[in-house]
Prior knowledge:
It is globular and about 55 Å long. The protein has helices at 3-24, 26-37, 74-82, 85-96, 245-252, and strands spanning 39-47, 52-57, 64-69, 108-111, 117-122, 127-132, 138-143, 149-154, 160-165, 170-175, 181-186, 191-197, 202-207, 229-233, 239-243, 261-266, 272-277, 282-287, 292-298, 321-323, 329-334, 339-344, 354-355, 359-364, 370-375, 380-385, 391-396, 401-410. 48% of the residues are buried. The chain is built from five helices and 28 strands. A hairpin with a 4-residue loop joins β1 (39-47) and β2. The protein is α+β, with helices and mostly antiparallel strands.
Amino acid sequence: MAPEHRGSTRMLLSLTAAVTxxxxxxxxxxxxxxxxxxxxxxxxxxNNWDGTADVIKSTGDxxxxxxxxxxxxxxxxxxxxxxxxIKLAFFLGIRLGPGEGHDQFVDDMYSTPDGSxxxxxxxxxxxxxxxxxxxxxxxxxxxVSGFRADHMAVxxxxxxxxxSASTSNTVHVLDIxxxxxxxxxxxxxxxxxxxxxxxxxxxxxxxxxxxxTDLDDPSMDWTKGDRHITVVDAxxxxxxxxxxxxxxxxxxxxxxxxxxxxxxxxxxxxxxxxFQVSFFNGFLEYDVAKDKITRAKTxxxxxATSEDRTTWVNDSRHHGLxxxxxxxxxxxxxxxxxxxTVVDRExxxxxxxxxxxxPYWATVSGDGTSCIVSESGADRVTAIxxxxxxxxxxVSVGDHPQRVRIGHVAAxxxxxxxx
Length: 419
């Protein structure tokens, strides 16, 4: 496609997305984008220990469409690492720490607006790469500062991607088409989740601090580092606000809870933020305008789950949170308790506890009717109906699925031709 045609298509996608979002919400944006450019809406599933991304249907039975190797340059990267003692030390540290004895090859991923590429953060390789979904070849590579890449977020127009560089306490913002850095900003210790808000005006980053030590007793919480939410202007990357949840938790009467903010979910109007914290089987509600925590929900414990906090993966107890498009239901991944459940947002009453094996992430199906969780302990992705709270579909994927993201590929795509 000629450059001028690519530009026109990209402009059409952005305009269509913005108008549709204003009228009907984010779920419809995906459908509008697909129709505008002849794309197919899909879900990308990052198989962290495999180094692959499965592409599955975004609704219905979630059946697999194709698979992408996201580490085609593995030999080259490993050679670089093994020739550099410092890089090797961090590489092995990731394997023995957050990787649970495995290398971490894919943390997060998003497709480009035209569906031609998938952009992937690769923790063990400390980089972000763009991979052509037609050929399976790398289009660009951006080494992050420090030694590990983590969660990402894509802007509303799909043109920018933010990535947390967890060992340098930095968030990089890149042009999704070229990989060129557009800006960066400093965050708290171990920046983690990123979210664009206010139509793309602001970018929120949540830092989780040190999660790989065994100093997990509440009395040793001070050793986990400086954990806070950093809010920046998404165009200038200038810091707008810092939210220290330690102060808010103490004021709410929950000095017992960690202030390491994990996965989050905003209400559709962004007036409320729901968030999980380290070690807690539940979540909290934060009123953005009032700048205070207003409610907490404690969810059931699995009697079979050890109470030894050092056995919980990366200080998680529950890790994964999403919200139905109408804002009425929350979906929670009870990671160490081996279940997922849908919670009514008004009453905070949970529904059935759906057995799942180490669920690691929660998102929303393309049609908005279901919560989608990754079962990292069973190498599956499972759908749970927001209305009934019951499991409706499940599909096998690769080794240790974590992040699941809605994206797009060409309508007839079934996998890279070179794979």
